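Q: Can someone sanity-check these two? First one:
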Amino acid sequence: MLKFILGIFVIFPFLASLSASVHAADVSSLDEAAVSIESRATTLRSEGIKQAFEAVILKNSGTQAALINPVVQKQLKSASSLMTQYGYFEDAGELYLKVNFDHKRIIRLLRDAGLPVWGKQRPLTLVWLVINENGEREILSDGAISSSRNTFDSQSTSRAVPLLFPLMDLDDSMKVGVNDVRGRFTDNIANASLRYKANYFLIATIEPQGAVYQYQMGLYPRDKDPQALQMTSLITSSGEAATVEDAVTAIVAATSEYYVGQYAIADSGERNTTKIAFVDVTDIKQLVAIERFLAQLSAIKSASIASIQGQTVEFNLALFGDEADLHRLMSLDPQVGAIESNNQQNLDYSSVEAVEAPQKETQIYYWKGQ
């Protein structure tokens, strides 16, 4: 009997980040997974390696559909050929098999299969969940000790989706109550969410309905569209589940699938290229850091320096997707900041004469580092 280990990917200890700017999370351990295993028998180890392989594929693609892709299924039969090392460890009296895979070959496999690749930059999601576990409705807090929280930890690990939960201290309790979450009073919840600096917040409920559990969820951006009267959910999902654990799994899966659509990038098959520039590059150490950053972005096939003028460095980029994919992905990373283009300002006037369409401006960034 094999099952996925809990807790390798840690749900974020966000107290230290409350004073920081909004940021995504860098997810580590994308090349490894661990499964519990009954013994060190060769047959069980072989099966465990396959399950660990599937877990790593899910982490790096973000979508369940990747597991049934024919190319992935073919590789599954020889999953050990992509393995770099394995080992056993014990935790709470249970034996685990930990497996590491060649990350570059995993990414190449996903590319060959035409699947999206989700890099290590992942959006941070604050979860406002009302659940009825002890005979009364309550908001699941950061300090909660419960089976549902354990399941969130497990799903966060298996899908590599960074999650955090509200403290539900006096500040939170004064702004958000159970009825706010159940009624989806988004203004109250959005206001309370600001202190956590997450990219998105999730509003969800899980409640018993006879022999099953009814769940509902909606995912919202951190900031409201200034032209909108109220916040609109990016996705919604609802349904019935046999257990609380199944409901949590469905909620996290729906969230992950949305993020895959936004931030995971498949090879378009086209030769898309663009240029970007970094300003205020003051030394070689900073330049090397920028080059390393660009090299690991899942949107970029290759990056090379086009020119260096003073403290401005321009890069030529070959892309897997399109420019929108690239800039959306870069907007997640706390190491970079974008400088808005002045192009739009130049268009905000009327003229009786025809005006040539301006050339597309190079997007300018600046390096903030760690």
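And here is the second, same format, sequence then tokens:
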Amino acid sequence: MAGSAHDSAIYARLFDAGEASKLFTDTAEVRAMLIVEGALAKAQGALGIIPELSAAAIHRATLEITLDPGGLGPAAAVNGVPVPGLVEAFRKEMQAPEHAQYLHWGATSQDIVDTGLMLRLRQLLGLVEGNLREVLKSLSDLAAAHADLPMAGRTYGQYATPVSFGSVVAQWGNPLLDCLDDLEGVNRSLLVSLSGAAGTGSVWGAKAPALRAALAEGLGLTDPGRSWHSDRGPLLRITGWLTAVAVALGKMGEDLILMAQSGVGEVRLGQAGGSSTMPQKQNPVQPSVLVAVARQVIGLNATLQGAGLARQERDGAAWFTEWLTVPQLCLSAATAAEVAKALAPGLTPQPVAMRAAFDQSQGLMQAEALSFHLSAHMPRPEAQAAVKKLCRQVIAEGGDLGTAARADFPGIDLSPVFDGTAQLGEAPAFARKFAVRVRNA
């Protein structure tokens, strides 16, 4: 098995991160770092920190020169960071030492690596947002169409009270809408990093704030107005958002696995997997991917939280931990959004199976409603005791709660209790409210 499923010829299509896969390659990292170096030189030239002619030459060269990532490996192994090797290789390829000497003027490796990562994370967030909007469109259509379709609500895996399929879909979608609402703030965490060796920007003197602001403007990133070399909060806010997305989609996956299982069959998946030996199998592959990547993202996010305890002005071990975890977390979160986009349009509820759950529950899903209905005719404690007795009787002797209740209370009209559609409460309204919220998002 490959070191990462996303890099595997066998598993990459199962855990398909889509276009996001292109953002986490050595080539993409080198290109992002060169973009940062070019933008830095351009900003420094405009502010008179380096000669403007050299700045223009460097900026142009960063757009034209291609570096082999493999050539940076030996230096990275020694230095613990790829930037010294990148600067050396670029100066050699530029073949203009009079200009190349001004490359990377006053910057430190972390400035280049972190800013380059932010450029790629900006693209990633855009890709995930686009996929989430498509998922939400499919879920909103499903919720609106089936807002009034009764199905068994379950708590602790047991029959509880009736819900509607549309309200269940809304429960999947509302956390995703919350994520979209939070995205504007998350995007503000896409920060430029430019602080120099120990985060003080001392090499640039009084021009340091203006240089950082100019670099941020040139790259379309946010100027933090400070150093964040050892403050990993900006990165953690982004990965935390991606984790929230993966968790929300993982919950949908968990529910779908249960709803599609043999003996339940309350939903049909548009696509299912087969078995190598059992021809009848219709395996819920896509929901299982959602659950698996959510679990992975949760674990990786916990590791990143630990790496947030960065020591002093820069912590190499904490930084290395990010390199080991951030790409996998990002690709797995992107996988969740890609898979959900493909999964959601094919979901089809199965009303017959949903109705069968009411029959199989022996009417016990209406026990709460029955106790409240009887409370209009007797004290509440007596009503509760009577219903508990009837439930024990039905469980022990068979039959159904409706028949037993009508036998014990022949003078009370119980039809409002045992009409499944009458016990949905706000479920249909929740489903329709979700659909409207998606339309307005």
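A (reply): Looked at the second one. DSSP finds 17 helices and four strands in the chain. The two ends are 41 Å apart (CA to CA).
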